[in-house]
Amino acid sequence: MNRRYFIRTLLTTAASLMLPVRSRLLHAADNQYPDLVAVRGADPGRMLDAALKASGGISRWVRPNMTVAIKPNIGWDVAPERAANTNPELIGRLVRQCKDAGAAKVYVFDHTCNNWTRSYRNSGIEAAVEQAGGIMAPAHRKGYYQSITIDNGSRLNQAVVHELLLESDVRINVPILKHHGSADLSIAMKNLMGVVWDRGYWHRSGLHRCIADFASSKLIDLNIVDAYRMLTRNGPRGVSEADVQTPKMLLMSTDMVAADAAATKIFGQQPQTVDYIRLAHAAGLGQMDLSRLNIQRINL
Question: How far apart are the C-alpha atoms of 70 and 61, rounded to whole Å?
Fold first, then answer.
């Protein structure tokens, strides 16, 4: 057996075995915090600070010498004002928070749809991350990915996932809320299509079901939904700034289904109208009934 392949297989197996234990240790005291924090009325950095404070602080997740993987949406070669990608100010502030908490390395990556170097640069995220002390990681070659099994998947039973998501100590998902022509909305669960190699399989095999199935892998520790700007039509890339509204909001939750459900409300829809949210809720992966959640709302 090829030695490099053997090492990758060993790391993947170890990561898969450790995920449930690690998750329990990291979030043992979750019930003392809100299920969801919703912040509105300020710039992305201030809203992030307020949400983290209400959720117990970044040290709830990030501790000294840990490695952190942050997954924004950086899929498109467009400027921040077009709201196709996650807000760069938000990502820069999050990287700085992680570094201040003692993180040894903070990686930021996305398997982009447009040219990856142009998307990283023109989204504004590359400059924000590097200025904050983070590392922009490439994701454009299959060699960066490892195969995992989706044990509870009904349609998606295996995925080839970026190694940083498997090997980092903490994984933070930071989507932007936007319209999507195929998935209706792109939020937290949909954003994870940017951590896999073969997105085309999802589209060919039932997109909503595959999105929900992948959420069952429980690879994410924290979800932060960027709704400072919101692409309301022509998603996922948009056509012009005329497609964009500015709600100036941010959501934070360890529950990916809850984060997506709350985000649909910001968009003006009901969670049950988005199939992957309904499917993930039915599978017990999270709670889409917001009336059952402890929500802390913050106006700045």
Answer: 13
What string of DSSP letters covers 41-81?
Answer: SS-HHHHHHHHHHHTT-GGGT--TT-EEEEEE---SSS-GG
The residue type found at 263 is A
| DSSP label of 27 | T
Task: List pLDDT tens digits, range 269-291.
Answer: 999 999 999 999 999 999 999 99
| CA diameter of the chain | 57
User: For domain 3-299, which architecture applies?
Assistant: 3-Layer(aba) Sandwich (3.40)
**Radius of gyration, CA atoms only, the chain:** 18
Where are the chain's structural domains?
A: 3-299
CB 112 within 8 A of CB 139: yes
Decide: helix, strand or coil at residue 286: coil
Whether 205 and 147 have beta carbons less than 8 Å apart is answered as: no
Model confidence pTM above 0.85: yes
Question: Helix, strand, coil shares of the chain as percentages rounded to 5?
Answer: 45, 20, 35
Burial readout 85-110 (b: 16 or more C-beta within 10 A, e: otherwise): bbbbbbbbbbbbbbbebebebbbbbb
Task: Return the exposure string of 137-156: e unless at least 16 CB atoms fall within 10 Å of the residue's CB, then b.
Answer: bebeeeebbbebebebbebb
Query: What is the chain's length?
Result: 300
How remote is the C-alpha of 294 from its chain's centroid? 21
CA distance 79 to 158: 34
Instruction: Give dist(CA 129, CA 185) in Å, integer.
Output: 26
Residue with tokens 């992030």: 48
In this predicted model, what pLDDT tens digit does every residue of 118-177 receive, in sequence order? 999 999 999 999 999 999 999 999 999 999 999 888 899 999 999 999 999 999 999 999
CA distance 208 to 193: 11
